[in-house]
Each structure stands twice: as structure tokens, then as C-alpha cells.
Amino acid sequence: MEIKETVREKYGEAALRVATGGSSCCGASAALEGCCDPITSNLYNAAQTSELPQEAVLASLGCGNPTALAQLNPGETVLDLGSGGGIDVLLSARRVGPSGKAYGLDMTDEMLALARENQRKAGVGNVEFLKGEIENIPLPDSSVDVIISNCVINLSGDKDRVLREAFRVLKPGGRFAVSDVVTRGEVPVNIRRNMLLWVGCIAGALEHDEYAASLTRAGFSHIDIEPTRVYNVEDARAFLSGQGIDVDAMAAAVEGKFMSAFIRATKPAGDIR
Ligand SMILES: C[S@@+](CC[C@H](N)C(=O)[O-])C[C@H]1O[C@@H](n2cnc3c(N)ncnc32)[C@H](O)[C@@H]1O
In 10 A of CB 164, how many CB atoms? Predict the structure, then answer.
């Protein structure tokens, strides 16, 4: 509960900053100008951002671009877990077309207000933003073709439950296509904590093999975890130095171990759980 309240407060403040003309991140637009944040910068290309309200782009707090990597077909139903200012929902809505539908799910009122305002400005009809938690998705069983998400599942204190819920609402044959922060291999606890603080993962990212195991436990098949950006200690130097950490001493332990990844999995076609 404490994690959830901290997350809600942090993203409520980020939404208000954007709504009052600022940026969700470090003083510049992450997505538009490639600001100092190597996690959220330059995720979307100009063709994508040009068709969106500027506030939706400014509010981008993801660590990947799930809509660029996911297969989305006209007429399909897409659900974005932790939709924030709505950037991936609006992009998905265009891809599935008027016969399809894109849902965004978020627990933070300020983000939902910002997303709904962005939808209004974008003039997109086949979109609905739902209030709720990704651990308890307010949609029926087997109702969604594709689940996307952008840097949210790492924030949950109960990732097994999130993945079980994702499995439940997907139709048999449905696709899980998510960007998230993942770690790989053993990292000393205090280094892991500080790197994840830098990334913004309050609850902590899953280790690569744990992520795959959790997806398997939930019932998924065809699991694939593909790194999209690997971070090194230089990326985090300013933040870590500010925490009083000897960055050079920890460089070797960090190398190649923290990354954004695109995670794919499928709900088996015959599964009617
Ligand atoms: C890092 S931001 C990412 C937002 C968006 N996906 C993007 O790419 O810009 C995380 C978002 O997830 C939401 N969130 C975090 N934990 C959640 C939970 N357990 N249930 C629902 N929403 C959650 C936050 O309110 C916030 O809007």
C-alpha cells in the first residue's frame, strides 16, 4: 500500500506539471528534445509525435515504444496498463482503426484527467480511459486482443498478480507486448537499489529469468525478452554522485545488467481459463 501511494503521488505531480505547461521529467521534453534522461528520451519518431497533442508527448514517461514493436491489427482491442498521459493509447487507437478500441488503465486521477484531455485534443473516438489498478483490471475475462504497457509493471509490488490479470483479460491467442525495465544477473543489493532508484522503479524491476518465470506461472507461452536499451554507469553518474556514491567503484557491477526490454508472450489459443 505504501509503494502504491508513493507511486500515485509521484505520477500525480508529474501529470500536474504537464497540465500546467511543464514537462513530466527533467525540465525539457523527454520525448521531443531528448533531454538528459536516457530512459525516456527519443522513444518516438517524428511521424508518431506529429499526430499527437504536445501534452501527450510531453507526458511520456515510458522506457520503450510498445506500439512500434507490437503487432496491432485493424479491429482489435488493445489495453495499455498504466497509460499515464495516454501517448501509447492514442497511437494504438489509430493503428486498430475505428472498428477497434484502445483502453488505457491508470490509478492516478491527475494522469486520467490529462489523458482524457489529450484524447479530446487528438479527436480520437475509439479510446476509453479507465480508472483502476493493474493488479485488478476492471475488464471481463478474455476481452482483449493485445496488452501493451510502458514502464509500469516494474512499479507494482505484486508483479505475479499483474501478469495473472493480464492473462485473464486476454482472449485465447492474445498477445502480451510490453516495454519494461529488466535487470540481468546478480547485482549487489545496494547497487541494485541505487540504480533502480535512478531508473524510477520504486518497487523494483524484475530480473530477466524471474520475469520469464512469472509469465510462465501466469500461463503464458512463446515468451521472449529482447533488450532495447542497455544502461551503463555513465548514464546514471550525475544521479548516483548526488547520492554520495563512488560511481567508478561500482561500474563493473552495473555493466550490461540494467536495461529496457520489450517483453512478448502469448496466451495459448486453446486456453479458456
Ligand atoms: C512511468 S509512468 C508511465 C506512463 C505511460 N505508460 C508512459 O509511457 O508515459 C507510470 C504510470 O503508471 C501508473 N501506475 C503505476 N502503478 C500503477 C498501478 N498499480 N495500477 C494502475 N496504474 C499504475 C501511474 O499512475 C503512471 O501514470
Answer: 17
pLDDT tens column, 26-73: 433 334 333 456 778 789 999 999 989 988 998 898 899 999 999 999
Ligand 1 atom with the smallest distance to the CA of 111 is: 27
Q: Does the beta carbon of 11 sit less than 6 angstroms from any atom of ligand 1?
A: yes
Give the pTM. 0.93
How far apart CA 102 and CA 111 sit, in angstroms, is 16
Q: Is the CB of 133 under 6 A from ligand 1?
A: yes
Average pLDDT, the chain: 89
65: its cell numbers: 515504444
CA gyration radius, the chain: 18
Angular region, 141: left φ>0, alpha ψ -120 to 50, beta rest:
beta
Q: Of how many residues is the chain composed?
A: 273
Residues 6+ away with beta carbon under 8 Å from 123: none
